[in-house]
Design brief:
Blueprint (H helix, E strand, L loop, with lengths): L9 H16 L14 H10 L11 H12 L10 H10 L6 H14 L5 H9 L3 E3 L2 E2 L1 H9 L8 H9 L11 H24 L2
Antiparallel strand pairs: 1-2
Helix pairs in contact: 1-4, 2-8, 2-9, 4-5, 4-6, 7-8, 8-9
Length: 200
């Protein structure tokens, strides 16, 4: 005989939010806000992944509205994910691609702003980001792909690492994969040049 049906409980919901937020924050780089100067890899990642990162509260409303319009007009649309949301997804292991999961991910990304500084979020994410077959984090990406430490990479190589966030390394690397990565890396370098020109 089936037991009594369990209805949504505010207490249970708040407890789950607390637990999931704790999962995201635990083990993160609290010291990462110390150096306020962005490195080249950080600039490249922000230019390619989330240009308004330092100006939003975990949710980029402009990107969200743009993708919603695309969805309603039946055009190809993306996920409008911010770095904060990607960090939440990576730490919690959320996999399902549903509106409910996406909404919950956005809630956690927003609440994360009250737990960690923006640079700590970015740097913690870059230390665990999935970059392909057996590769987690930009440091490991540098060692596996180029056989160097991250600080030894030149800007072109750093752009390749940043491009791998969209095109992770497959188990068997192909020319098609390499071309996609190279094209995105070149785009990142063009954005970097413009960014540097504006900040001279």
């Amino acid at each position: 005989m089936a037991g009594p049906r369990r209805f949504p409980s505010l207490k249970r919901a708040l407890f789950r939010i607390h637990q999931d937020l704790r999962t995201v924050v635990e083990g993160s780089s609290w010291w990462a806000d110390y150096d306020k100067e962005l490195s080249d890899i950080e600039i490249l990642v922000l230019l390619l992944e989330d240009r308004r990162f330092r100006h939003h509260w975990g949710i980029d409303s402009r990107s969200l509205l743009r993708e919603l319009i695309k969805l309603l007009t039946r055009r190809r649309h993306g996920g409008a994910s911010t770095i904060d949301m990607q960090f939440v997804r990576t730490k919690t292991g959320f996999k399902e691609r549903t509106l409910k999961r996406k909404s919950y991910e956005m809630l956690l990304a927003f609440l994360l702003q009250f737990q960690m500084g923006k640079l700590a979020i970015l740097r913690s994410y870059l230390s665990i980001v999935y970059l392909g077959w057996g590769i987690k984090g930009v440091d490991e990406g540098a060692r596996v792909v180029f056989g160097k430490y991250l600080w030894q990479l030149n800007r072109e190589e750093l752009a390749t690492i940043a491009a791998m966030m969209v095109y992770p390394v497959p188990k068997n690397r192909t020319d098609s994969w390499a071309e996609k990565v190279a094209k995105r890396a070149e785009y990142g370098l063009r954005l970097f040049t413009r960014h540097a020109g504006r900040h001279k």
